[in-house]
Amino acid sequence: MDFLDRHIADRVALAMSETGVGFGQIVARTGLSAASLGDRVGAAAPFTAVDLVLVACALGRELADLLPGQGRGDSGAA
Q: How many CB atoms neighbour CB 39 within 10 A?
């Protein structure tokens, strides 16, 4: 995985922690398989745009919150 994939995975993990929405809840709310979500959060596979939209909705967050240089508390550096 490249730096961007790792950064997005980190942002998703942080958002999950901040919202208190667990892995199983994300799976249930998005319809993504546990294996697929695990690979993406672990940065073994990249998130697709559709994955990110589903996860953002499941977390009650804006899509921009999961992207580098956007959203809450990001300085803009990727």
A: 17
> Is the distance from CB of 11 to CB of 68 less than 8 angstroms?
yes
Q: What is the pLDDT of residue 68?
A: 86
pLDDT tier at 59, thresholds 50, 70, 90: very high
**Left if phi > 0, otherwise alpha if psi is -120 to 50, otherwise beta: which for 36?**
alpha
Alpha carbons 53 and 35: distance in angstroms, whole number: 18
Count other Cβ atoms within 10 Å, centred on residue 50: 10
* Predicted local confidence at residue 2, as pLDDT: 87
